[in-house]
User: Which sequence fits this backbone?
């Protein structure tokens, strides 16, 4: 991910005069770290009474942890607490004091001797832990110098409306925890390691970071860019694949299919066929559709492609098919409801898809939009007829509360589920996301939505069928770990 | 004194969080002195900094030595932790 924003320069200020002894500073820092490590963890505790079902409870716990975005921070504090209390620290400082050094000199000497041991470590990731050692010692030194609020001024304070790129000589893990990261679009540091806790925390919050950049010419307010391949779709797909989940891409035309496959997508999780219909001057014939679907399957080069049946109604209309105005279009004739009212369109589309699939066995699936009853799935299955040897698989979009609540019944009638989180959130939360008065309720990870996702995944797995997520939630790197832990098999994202 | 050799299971090696967990486990055996030994060095397993300074990678062969206290019990539980923890 590459971003550009005004630079915000940040420097550490430490006076060089000791006002506390090592022992006094040790006690203060120890108490601070202890409080930080413990309170951070407490926030993630969820009452066992909140949910009876273990899976749903886990889902909620994880969603809560994600919303807080501080689990990494808590474990960093716990590590720092352990380091401060390490016998090596005390022995090393006491050796310095015995040799006649002042408290401040003894602490600085201890830091250097301990950091020197780390410099010999071969493994770069493990060597980068030296950052944490320096962080602990910096806290000690700052406390000894009477600088108890070592926290940097929050950059967002002066830039309420626009985010900034934080530019620093070096950041230490505790800086990342103390900074108000909401105001930060990206981070640039001169010193540090790409595998340090600073980078890990930054990535966990979806903030791009670049280390080893010459910052000498950068002034406050300069527009600077941060380019970090570890943030965004790359990190998402890496994480998903390491957990043996499949990463698909959503597409609306042939060019997008070609691009997705070229960039490494394992399939097309959602092909929105309505755009082909909307761009045609009139209703496309069986032959036109068959040829188009064959081009699509050819473009996806042997990878699976989920063709969503014509999904019009609501806010999407076909120019050549005027429909009656509805008072409440999002609860009206949409998706499969429209198709079952226009069976000729449905039958032609399915026939064209089956015919195209003959040349590309095992590649094509049909996805039914806006399902709310088992009968709707049966109707489509019936039109598919013999579908010799399961040539085309049949999937159900889970995007209405009804489809969640009858997920076990639907799972028995189809080959896979695909959760459309945008519509599902809108319907589950009963909220119009374009209405700013209620849009804050539009949260695809609200407890109600977490339950809906867990119910759907459980029903799919109980029936032995896979389940994918193709809404915006799938493209959000902050949700990837959650969806993996929930058991989602396929993430279909906007773009790789 | 009892000892055994294990291969480190954790994919990221003996990193900070794993070392922190090991220190916690070692502290449960208050009467025992626990050392982690490599061909080069031997360190105190109750010191996170010493453990990190080993720079032990995934698969590294480590010897666990326990002296005093509930030796056998400590050895089994620490060796099992290092052989199975994959955090």
Assistant:
């Amino acid at each position: 991910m590459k971003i550009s924003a005004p630079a915000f320069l940040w420097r550490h200020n430490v006076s060089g005069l000791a006002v506390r002894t090592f022992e006094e500073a040790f006690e203060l820092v120890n108490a601070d770290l202890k409080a930080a490590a413990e309170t951070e963890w407490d926030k993630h505790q969820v009452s066992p009474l909140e949910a009876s079902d273990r899976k749903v409870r886990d889902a909620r716990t994880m969603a809560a942890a994600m919303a807080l975005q501080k689990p990494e921070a808590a474990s960093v504090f716990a590590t720092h607490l352990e380091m401060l209390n390490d016998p090596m620290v005390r022995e090393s400082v006491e050796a310095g004091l015995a040799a006649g050094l002042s408290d401040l000199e003894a602490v600085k000497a201890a830091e250097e001797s301990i950091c020197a041991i780390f410099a010999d470590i071969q493994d770069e990731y493990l060597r980068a832990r030296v950052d944490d050692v320096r962080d602990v010692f910096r806290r000690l030194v700052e406390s000894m110098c009477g600088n108890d609020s070592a926290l940097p001024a929050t950059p967002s304070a002066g830039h309420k409306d626009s985010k900034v790129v934080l530019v620093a000589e070096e950041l230490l893990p505790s800086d990342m925890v103390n900074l108000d990261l909401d105001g930060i679009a990206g981070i640039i540091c001169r010193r540090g390691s790409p595998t340090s806790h600073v980078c890990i925390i930054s990535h966990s919050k979806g903030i791009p970071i670049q280390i080893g950049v010459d910052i000498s010419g950068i002034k406050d307010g300069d527009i600077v860019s941060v380019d970090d391949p570890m943030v965004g779709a790359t990190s998402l797909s890496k994480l998903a694949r390491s957990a043996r989940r499949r990463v698909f891409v959503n597409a609306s035309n042939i060019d997008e299919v070609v691009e997705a496959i070229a960039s490494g997508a394992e399939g097309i999780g959602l092909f929105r066929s309505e755009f082909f219909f909307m761009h045609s001057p009139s209703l496309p014939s069986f032959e036109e559709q068959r040829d188009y679907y064959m081009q699509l399957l050819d473009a996806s080069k042997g990878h699976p492609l989920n063709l969503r049946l014509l999904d019009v109604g609501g806010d999407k209309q076909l120019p050549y098919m005027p429909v009656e105005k509805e008072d409440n279009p999002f609860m009206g004739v949409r998706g499969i409801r429209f198709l079952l009212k226009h069976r000729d369109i449905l039958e032609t589309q399915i026939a064209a898809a089956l015919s195209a699939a003959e040349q590309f066995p095992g590649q094509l699936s049909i996805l039914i939009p806006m399902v709310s009853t088992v009968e709707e799935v049966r109707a489509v299955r019936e039109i598919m007829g013999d579908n010799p040897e399961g040539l085309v698989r049949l999937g159900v979009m889970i995007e209405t509360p009804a489809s969640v609540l009858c997920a076990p019944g639907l799972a028995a009638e189809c080959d896979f589920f695909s959760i459309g989180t945008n519509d599902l959130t809108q319907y589950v939360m009963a909220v119009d996301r374009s209405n700013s008065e209620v849009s804050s309720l539009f949260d695809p990870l609200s407890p109600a939505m977490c339950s809906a996702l867990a119910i759907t995944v459980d029903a799919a797995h109980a029936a032995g069928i896979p389940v994918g997520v193709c809404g915006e939630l799938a493209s959000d790197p902050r949700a990837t770990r959650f969806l993996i832990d929930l058991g989602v098999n396929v993430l279909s994202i906007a773009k790789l | 004194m009892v000892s055994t050799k294990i291969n480190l299971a954790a994919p990221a090696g003996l990193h900070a969080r794993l070392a922190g967990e090991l220190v916690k486990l070692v502290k449960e055996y208050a009467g025992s002195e626990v050392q982690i030994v490599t061909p080069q060095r031997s360190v105190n397993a109750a010191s996170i900094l010493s453990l990190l300074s080993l720079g032990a990678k995934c698969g590294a062969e480590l010897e666990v030595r326990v002296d005093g206290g509930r030796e056998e019990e400590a050895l089994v539980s620490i060796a099992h932790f290092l052989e199975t923890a994959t955090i």
Summary: The CA atoms of residues 62 and 482 of chain A lie 6 Å apart.
